[in-house]
Design goal:
Mean pLDDT of chain B: 90
Low-confidence stretches of chain B: none
Largest sheet of chain A: 2 strands, antiparallel
Number of helices of chain B: 3
Largest sheet of chain B: none
Oligomer: heterodimer
Structural class of chain A: mainly alpha
Strand content of chain B: under 5%
Order of helices and strands of chain B: HHH
Number of strands of chain B: 0
Mean pLDDT of chain A: 82
Strand order of the largest sheet of chain A: 1-2
Helix content of chain A: over 70%
Order of helices and strands of chain A: HEEHHHHHHHHHHHHHHHHHHHHH
Radius of gyration of chain A: 31 Å
Distance between the termini of chain A: 87 Å
CATH architecture of one domain in chain B: Orthogonal Bundle
Strand content of chain A: under 5%
CATH topology of one domain in chain B: Helix Hairpins
Low-confidence stretches of chain A: 101-117
Number of strands of chain A: 2
Helix content of chain B: over 70%
Shape of chain B: elongated
Distance between the termini of chain B: 57 Å
Structural class of chain B: mainly alpha
Chain lengths: 574, 102
């Protein structure tokens, strides 16, 4: 009963956000402040604003949230009511972020029953909290430097250069943590054991994009600081390449998608780091198309998980090798193809147009002789090829029999002992119910159409170059798959050893300190406490002997005591 | 009257009281010795009050002590009665029920 109420509430709330976005569309920018409270010279309060950026983000959040809520009706029909409540709560928090700026929630902790999900949630929590500290101090520095905490009143011209750079760099720490950029990139792939709809909502469309949104919102301030933009460009370029390389070696559908999310977010950041209006526009364009196709891909991965029982490529291959998966899950196959094509940037799909917008903005900057422009241009081009590589790899290995192997064991199944032993029960394998497929189809349509809503202004040279890059990435993947080979360099598969390094540098010392603290508490402070108790126990037989039960003994002791005290008082007093 | 005379009397009374409490085994005698001690204190109070002339603080306190002594002796005699009923004697040294056995 409660679960039903929450389901209805969740869907209705998402639709309400869409309604708001539709109503606000075309309205003049406006802002309202309320509950202002003066603190010293500053005023801290709540402020809500609506402009074109707000409408855009509201539309994105609304569409994705609606799709996810509807999809969850089929995906998690036996889950507790708290699931829908938490998704709705998260959506509400995201809307708060969009219309003003505020802290937001963490939801992956919902999957308590799975240990890796739990440790992933702890990791995500720690990393984003660490980033939030930087974020908070950034707010303080900027707010105090500008004399206001209202975004609309922040004027970079009135803030001194040093304060501006410090504040934006601190904000950047928060952005890097929230959007899983280098060096805080590891939490996002590790949060993947959470339910797929949540991944689609949080990790694809909304929460991780909050960093991009934040920079877009404060773009004047960020653009005024050369240093911050350079740092942002370096972080983004490193992240997009590292994440794309990690994605090309991951062996689980959701993990590939998680790394590709990190990589695509970095592309948005690189566009923002150009510091131009075109860069901001390209970043937001890519944000919208990415929300559509990455939400779609995560929901597709959810269907695979739901229908097959696992999204690991090893397990999927058991079905694919017998040619079952594609035929059984036709709608999923088609929509996932659209999503991957959009992600890879195949011409005609939304991802192609938005990625070209980024490349074009970078090219214009590079043309003007900007080093940052060149670096961004090169890394985005390289990432485009890598993206095509891992998209094609994922697509082929998930859905197609390898001709060279003739149904035999391929590169993925090498480590899988059960690969040939158990014949999977394919009779029950069929496509998901329509409540799950409808969002897929809707998002698949969006992954194509969204590329054209902005008005097609294509630079033919750049279009040709990026198509060539896609082919350049796709062909090696195809030839490797044809030969049934899947070389996974150890360094990529281990994700550049960042996790072990963090384990050695942070986790081990913290554990050591914790052990020290426990030992100090147990062996030093506790020792005093125990000694006090033991002294009392040991002394009690002696005191017990004084308790003779004879009134005269007590009285004599009392009299002697009084006399002694009187003598003492006399001695001291004289 | 010089102050020293009532004070000396009070000291004598108090010492008799202390002796009675510590030396006698009969509980009733002990209670009577308590009364002696209390009255020695009373005597002190009244004597100092008369010596200082100005106020009646000492006399007031003496009245309080007399009241308390009456209450105390009532309680004490009740305990003695119970002791006699329970044990058949009023010997303080023999009544050692509250001894802590190791």
């Amino acid at each position: 009963m409660i679960a039903t109420v929450w389901r209805v509430t969740g869907v209705a709330f998402s639709l309400l956000i869409l309604l708001f976005a539709a109503l606000l569309y075309g309205a003049a920018p406006d802002q309202v402040a309320f509950l202002d409270s003066p603190v010293g010279d500053l005023t801290i309060g709540f402020a809500v604003r609506t402009d074109d950026l707000t409408v855009l983000m509201l539309a994105v959040v609304g569409v994705i949230a609606t799709c996810v809520q509807v999809y969850s009706l089929g995906y998690l029909h036996q889950r507790p009511a708290s699931y829908h409540a938490l998704v709705t709560l998260f959506t509400a928090a995201m809307v708060t972020v969009v219309v003003s700026d505020s802290l937001f929630f963490l939801l992956i902790g919902h999957y308590w029953e799975r240990r890796d999900a739990r440790s992933g949630a702890v990791k995500a929590f720690l990393m984003t909290r660490f980033a939030d500290v930087g974020f908070l101090f950034g707010i303080f520095v900027l707010g105090v430097g500008a004399g206001t905490f209202r975004i609309s009143e922040l004027d970079p011209a009135r803030i001194s250069a040093g304060v501006l750079t410090t504040g934006t760099l601190l904000l950047l720490v928060g952005v890097v943590g929230k959007s899983a950029q280098v060096p805080l990139q590891t939490w996002l792939p590790d949060a993947m054991p959470g339910p797929s709809p949540v991944s689609a909502l949080i990790h694809a469309a909304t929460m991780v994009a909050a960093g991009v949104f934040l920079i877009a919102r404060l773009y004047d301030v960020f653009a005024a600081s050369e240093t911050t933009l350079t740092v942002l460009a370096i972080v983004a370029c490193v992240t997009m390449l590292v994440a794309a390389l990690c994605a090309s070696a991951a062996v689980e559908v959701k993990r590939v998608l998680a790394w590709s999310t990190v990589s695509q977010l970095a592309i948005m950041f690189s566009a923002l780091s150009l510091g131009t209006a075109e860069g901001r526009h390209a970043a937001l364009f890519h944000l919208v198309t990415h929300a559509a196709f990455k939400g779609l891909l995560f929901l597709c991965a959810g269907v695979l998980l739901h229908q097959v029982g696992s999204a690991a490529l090893v397990v999927l291959r058991r079905y694919t090798r017998r040619g079952k998966l594609r035929k059984a899950l036709q709608v999923t196959f088609l929509t996932m193809t659209v999503g991957l094509a959009s992600l890879a940037g195949v011409p005609g799909f939304a991802g192609f147009f938005s990625k070209d917008a980024v490349i074009e903005a970078a090219w214009e900057q590079a043309h003007d002789g900007s080093v940052v422009g060149w670096v961004v241009l090169l890394s985005v081009c390289l990432t485009a090829a890598l993206t095509a590589f891992y998209c094609v790899r994922l697509w082929l290995w998930t859905f197609f029999r390898t001709p060279a192997l003739a149904g035999g064991i391929g590169a993925f199944e090498d480590g899988d002992a059960a690969a040939d032993l158990d014949e999977p029960d394919t009779s029950k394998l069929r496509d998901a119910p329509w409540v799950m497929l409808a969002p897929l189809v809707l998002l698949a349509v969006a992954s194509i159409v969204l590329g054209y809503v902005d008005g097609v202004h294509l630079n033919w040279v750049i279009g040709l170059v990026s198509t060539a890059l896609v082919l350049l990435g796709a062909l090696p993947a195809y030839s490797l798959w044809r030969r049934g080979a899947d070389p996974r360099p150890v360094v990529f598969e281990r994700e550049f050893g960042v996790d072990p390094a963090y384990h050695g540098l942070v986790v081990v010392p913290v554990r050591w300190l914790a052990k020290l603290t426990v030992a100090g508490d147990r062996d030093v402070i506790g020792a005093y406490v125990r000694a006090a108790g033991r002294t009392g126990t040991l002394a009690s037989p002696g005191f017990r002997r004084l308790q003779t039960g004879n009134v005269h003994t007590y009285l004599t002791a009392a009299v002697i005591g009084v006399v002694a005290l009187a003598v003492l008082a006399g001695v001291i007093g004289s | 009257m010089p102050l020293i005379l009532p004070l000396l009397l009070a000291v004598v009374l108090f010492c008799i009281g202390v002796y009675g409490v510590l030396a006698r085994r009969n509980v009733i005698t002990m209670l009577m010795s308590f009364e002696l001690m209390l009255n020695a204190v009373n005597l002190n109070l009244v004597a100092f009050d008369a010596w200082r002339v100005d106020e009646a603080t000492g006399q007031t306190l003496a009245i309080f002590v007399i009241t308390l002594a009456a209450a105390e002796i009532g309680l004490g005699l009740a305990i003695v009665l119970l002791l006699f009923r329970g044990h058949g004697h009023v010997d303080a040294d023999a009544a050692r029920d509250l001894v802590e056995r190791p």
